[in-house]
Backbone:
């Protein structure tokens, strides 16, 4: 009976998260985790804690522990990647998202990667990305539609 209640709270939290109501989702995930500390509940709670309370380290810890318990579950990679985005670390978020896709397809991870976008390679690899030749020539070629 308790697992059914926990699953209902988790489902309610997912709906709140999709509606953009992270505080309500956090409350639901906390209730679900108290009833039954399943890794997926803790991982989702970790993301909400990082986003709403700014406790990024605690959120990362909850997601990492969930990943150790269920390494093949892409939800944990999605949540950890979103925590890295909250923290402002795009490169690590992309790495985590790609690792998650290595465990199986996930529409949400793919959507996150599409939203982030990727950078084109530099024109002159011997020069830094911030070199004016790379920057301005890249901008011109992109405006022309060549690149």
Residues:
């Amino acid at each position: 009976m308790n697992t059914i209640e926990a699953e209902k709270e988790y489902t309610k939290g997912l709906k709140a998260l999709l509606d953009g109501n992270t505080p309500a989702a956090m409350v639901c995930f906390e209730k679900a985790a108290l009833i039954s500390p399943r890794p997926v509940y803790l991982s989702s709670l970790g993301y909400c804690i990082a986003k709403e309370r700014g406790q990024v380290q605690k959120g990362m810890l909850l997601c990492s522990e969930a990943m150790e318990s269920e390494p093949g579950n892409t939800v944990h990679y999605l949540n950890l990647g979103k925590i890295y985005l909250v923290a402002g670390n795009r490169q690590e978020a992309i790495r985590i998202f790609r690792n998650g896709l290595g465990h199986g397809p996930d529409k949400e991870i793919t959507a996150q990667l599409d939203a982030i976008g990727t950078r084109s390679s530099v024109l002159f690899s011997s020069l830094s990305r911030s070199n004016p030749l790379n920057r301005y020539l890249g901008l011109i070629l992109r405006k022309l539609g060549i690149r």
User: Anything to note?
Assistant: The mean pLDDT is 92. The chain has two domains: 2-116, 118-147. Residues 118-147 form one domain.
